[in-house]
Specification:
Blueprint (H helix, E strand, L loop, with lengths): L4 E7 L2 E8 L12 E5 L9 H11 L3 E5 L17 H17 L9 E6 L2 H10 L6 E5 L4 H7 L10 H21 L22 H10 L18 H4 L16 E6 L5 H10 L4 E6 L6 H4 L4 H12 L2
Helix pairs in contact: 2-3
Family: Belongs to the polyketide transferase af380 family.
Pfam families: Abhydrolase_6
Organism: Clonostachys byssicola
């Protein structure tokens, strides 16, 4: 398979670094169909996004991966900032980049795939961008709900203490920068050393370490550092508030039956209108689907093949 082509485009004031995967030689002719692939929170384009992009390119699609603003090889300070409005703009700008490739891409055949937090971001983008003709997610989550609820688990509800704690951390970080004039190094969101997690540890973060802390997903530009003033940007954000606006464009949300995040896909699909599908892969957790494409890969090829026809 040929190496992807480096790509660069603007998303507001941020310069986004991407890679365009062309259809593999001998793959089906998709008549210029293309898919934007957006990475998880704290991730970079070379991880799970590239796995899915390669799967799509083998099936004849163009696939564009990119680093979110403030992350990876993209510009923006402070490094690691998680800004939902910027993330949504990144995705829309990625669509614009594909539209600009007039000799290869059919602007009427552009879909979007979001993984983890980007499952939420691509949903928000599609709700207000009609150029996105088909939307799929893998292990989707909403960073706003995570912040307000104090975690990813479905039994958690909006928690005033979690909200206050997040906003207090953001305020203290902002005040420290304002008084010192120094941008401090952001804290690490979770320890990625699998040896430090036991069977009694939080299952979600244990799964994260099993991916990001091993050869499965380790990458030098993936620092897992998130500045605390990301949280006052996330606390009022809701990925799926206007999910019904995606219709009549098709929606597919894929999740593992054992994923702590499964409830996000179920709720988001319930809030959407037809055509829609939540596709549950038995026995898989949130992070299994980052690099095990045995079922999710062909399902996405089938979905985009049908709806970007």
């Amino acid at each position: 398979m040929a190496a992807p082509t480096k790509a660069q485009f603007k998303a507001g004031h941020i310069t986004i670094a991407g890679e365009l995967h062309a259809p593999s030689e001998g793959s089906p002719d998709r008549k210029g169909a293309a898919v934007v692939v957006s990475h998880p929170m704290t991730g970079v384009k070379e991880q799970t996004s590239s796995d899915y992009a390669r799967s799509l390119s083998k099936a004849g699609f163009y696939a564009l991966t990119f680093d979110a603003g403030y992350q990876g090889e993209s510009s923006g300070e402070p490094r690691g900032l998680e800004d939902p409005s910027q993330r949504v703009e990144d995705i829309k700008s990625a669509v614009s980049y594909l539209v600009s490739i007039t000799d290869k891409i059919n602007p009427e055949k552009i879909g979007v795939l979001g993984i983890c937090a980007s499952g939420g971001y691509v949903s928000a983008a599609a709700q207000s961008d009609l150029r996105i003709r088909a939307l799929a997610t893998v292990s989707a989550a909403c960073v706003g709900a995570l912040t307000r609820n104090g975690g990813i688990y479905g039994h958690l509800k909006e928690n005033p203490a979690a909200i206050e704690g997040a906003l207090k951390a953001a305020a203290e970080w902002r005040n420290a920068e304002a008084t010192s004039g120094v941008v401090s190094d952001a804290p690490v969101m979770f320890d990625s050393d699998p040896s430090k997690w036991t069977e009694d540890s939080d299952a979600f973060f244990r799964g994260a370490a099993g991916y990001y802390g091993t050869s499965r997903g380790n990458h030098p530009r993936c620092t897992r550092k998130v500045p605390p003033h990301s949280y006052d940007k996330m606390v009022t954000y809701d990925s799926f508030r206007f999910q019904y606006l995606i219709s009549p464009r098709p929606l597919l949300m894929i999740a593992g039956s054992e994923a702590e995040s499964l409830h996000f896909s179920q709720t988001a699909v319930a809030q959407a209108k037809e055509p829609k599908e939540v596709f549950v892969i038995q026995g898989k957790n949130h992070f299994d689907l980052y690099d095990d494409l045995t079922v999710s890969g062909p399902k996405l090829v089938e979905f985009f093949g049908k709806h970007l026809n």
